Amino acid sequence: MPAAAPPTPIAGVAALLALARAALPTGLAVLLAFAAADLWQMLDPISVLPASGRLEAAIVGAQLDRARTIPADTDVVTIGDSAGLINIDPGALRAGLDGASVEGLNTVGFAGPHGHARMLNDFLARGGRPQRLLVAMRNLSPPSGASARQVERLFVSPRALPPPRLLPRIRARLQGGAETLLYLPLPGAWGDYYGGVEQYDAFLRERHGFVHDPVPARATPFPVVPPFGLNDTFRAELPELAAAIAALGADRVRLVLMPENDAWDAETTAAGHAAALRELHTALGLDAARQLDGLPIRLGPESFASFGHLNAAGRAQLTAALAAALRRDRARYPWPIADLQG
Amino acid sequence: MSFVSLAFAVFFPVVLVLYHLLGARLRAQNALLLAASYLFYGWWDWRFLGLLLFTSLVDYAAARLMAERPARRGVALAVSLSMNLGVLFAFKYFDFFADSLNALLAQFGATPSFTLLHVILPVGISFYTFQSMAYTIDVYRGVVAAERDLPRFLTYVAFFPQLVAGPIERARHMLPQFARPRHVTLDGLRRGLWLIVWGYYLKIVLGDVSGAYADAAFRVDQTFGWSVILGTVAFGLQIYGDFSGYSAIAKGTAALLGFELMWNFDRPYWSLDVREFWQRWHISLSTWLRDYLYIPLGGNRRGRLRTMLNLFLTMVLGGLWHGAAWNFVLWGAWHGALLGVHRVYDAALPAQRRLPVPLAWALTTLAVFIGWFFFRARSWPMITGMTAALGNLTWTPGHGALLVALAVLIAPVALVEWLQARRGAWVVADAPVPVRVLWEAAALLVMVAVMDRVRAEFIYFQF
Question: What pTM did the predictor assign?
Fold first, then answer.
């Protein structure tokens, strides 16, 4: 067998031409694959989550979808901020209410009354008539500003289709395919506990619209913030939520203010809590006489995962109190309520 | 300038075209490479170009002095070593030692008295000073002749493909390549292209994707044991992907210019003992430490105990080379101890009584990844907090997803390396065109798919 000829050394322009020749097949293959990905995306477009605010987008997107898909005859439905999303154990609440169905539609504080109303309206629009609607939230409104506007956009389209330019279209298709296996972790401890958006979404749906804060216990002292405060943006949006509540019937709605941490003394916290109850009942057109009783106003740091989120122990404590309060409430104002529209 | 930047995507093709258009004009090509290398380095921070030039000039002069005044060889070497180690100490280690001494003094109630310099660490300083030092030591030992051509020497020190993160090349391998006309071959170009594609895949897919998982797991307040375990695996993949990816890109870009750089990695995670690991991991550093530190300390020539002490000291200093922090010292000490234990084991048991291959691999991998834990956990609270978390083996939704992701990341790399072990390093580059194109195109498409996690920085830039 003849020996193979040694490779011919090349230099100058010939080297550049040889380089182009070596790179050409792969380059063409990649262009072909891009064209195929683009065609696929045009025929069957997939959406992408924004790079920033992924966690918020995942929550809002999943809950918007659930508002349109959970059973219309669910007994207890919650709306409100992330404290309501995290601080209630749906399984324990269901067990405490003798098997009543429970579904959460809470999102994030930045959504504000406008976002909460949007969630409720979506549910009502498809015939949702819960026996009890719990407006579950903290007695503080988050600062209005850029983040609020960002979440506002998420309500319009949390999983936006990529812009119609060529490269984003191709990237969306490839990125969507990769994320199923190589998930992009959610921020911080959330990414560690849940993984990516898909795992978080699955957990939220499996838990009837509720999740856990991944931090088991608060490690540092709580920052001192005002014990009660609603900002002007929040107040301005309350009539919108009041209108949605009125459409359901205010007699079915209960306000559940989440327990606060012990950054303040008991007296200050209680005063803030009472002030929030008064203002919110009035603004939302709710009957203060129907306020659930026996709910904890203040819990120690051992019950908290983060500033406004309870850990497993706190969640169990609050849920047990909430179930007991709803049982008493049901005894006074029995279910089912005759539905005039039905 | 990072390999993962738009600037490099413009810079390299321009340099490549100009370089080859210069044809056989060797001096002009070297001048172009020198200018390009200084631009490459200055892109990060032009102020440190002066430092690079200064250390290069001192080492050039020291070597010339050794050649022309053999009687003053010792003085010239001392000047070179003092300058290189002095620069390293000032920029990299002064604050670490001063801070540690201040903390020690405070423990005894004394007032901390060392003022910290807070200087920026010049990127790649450990790499180019070690390369330059190796040159003067080799000239002193008579292993290599002192270079007369100053531009050629400056280009050798600053050669941009390997300037900021190695491989730490030896003068006897690289200097002759700057002295003779460089030609490329079609095979060489194809191999260079493959190395570049594979290097970027390792960096962007294996390194950066795993890096996001490691970042999520390495937290002071970590409470889940499985996050510690899987996070450490993720970091082991990140650092391998990041650094071996850099080395592959460096070797590939150099190949397109007609240069041959050494292999810096040789499938290290297939090692069956720790000694073998160090023959496969960051080969240019481990051989540097062997030739310029371990052997001068006495190597294995002064009895078993001294050998083990030499190994330990070499690895501790190797750990410190990676960074001025105690966790790197701990990492080096861990590997020094492992090498010592392996040496005892190796001497005590004949080959036929060694551990079965799967067990040897598992134990070696476990030991190496325990080392990565110390490497990545950059503070004492993180080390203790995450170690304590190992007591809680609660399985969360994220752990299942992470396990799948790690398997998906490992599989293609393991396949390529398995093929390389059986058929040689160029198994993909030399494969029939359809096979090679399929591999390269798939790698490029996955890179585009995970582009949102790309980090321009390489871990080893900071060393």
Answer: 0.87
